[in-house]
Design brief:
The chain is of the alpha+beta class. Helix content is 37%, strand content 37%. The chain has a single domain, classed as Aminopeptidase, CATH 3.40.630. It is built from four helices and seven strands; from the N terminus they run αββββααβαββ. A hairpin with a 6-residue loop joins β3 and β4. The longest helix has 22 residues.
Length: 150
């Protein structure tokens, strides 16, 4: 049985305005806000031709907003909105998500289930989850040729 958070994660989508900053040819950052909360989503290619790693961080926000569970779901929806945009525009060969705990792994699984059709329509397949103790990892691997030009 799905938790309430997983149900919410599978039920709502995000339309937050996302701003992009290219830090280098191997590092892009998407930023958006949910009420007072500023969120950074990092896309980092750690080695040439390697996979892009996704991570996100909350930079600041009012304590009441940071503790609000519904806003936490909206933040995660914004993260996956940024991932969709990155897949659409950059067309990377692969993107990796790593969860450090079971709760985040369950939420990632819920989002990836919800996004599966959209991910496939962008030319990707989901691989995982793979347990790499103590982490859980998913890879979005491109199965259609990319039109991205360096």
């Amino acid at each position: 049985m799905a938790t309430f958070a997983e149900f919410i994660a599978e039920s709502f989508d995000s339309d937050a305005p996302v701003n992009w900053k290219l830090k280098s040819g191997m590092h892009a950052v998407a930023t958006f806000t949910v009420k007072s909360i500023a969120v950074d989503v990092d896309f980092e290619q750690r080695e040439p031709k390697g996979p892009w790693h996704v991570s996100f961080d909350t930079r600041h926000g009012d304590i009441a907003d940071l503790k609000n569970e519904m806003l936490a779901i909206r933040r995660l929806n914004g993260v996956f909105q940024a991932v969709r945009q990155f897949l659409q525009i950059r067309e990377p060969g692969s993107v990796v998500f790593i969860a450090k705990d079971e709760d985040r792994a369950a939420l990632y699984a819920a989002y990836l289930r919800r996004e599966n059709s959209a991910i496939e329509s962008l030319g990707y397949q989901i691989e995982g989850p793979h347990a790499i103790e103590p982490y859980t990892q998913w890879t979005l691997r491109r199965v259609q040729p990319s039109t991205w030009k360096e």
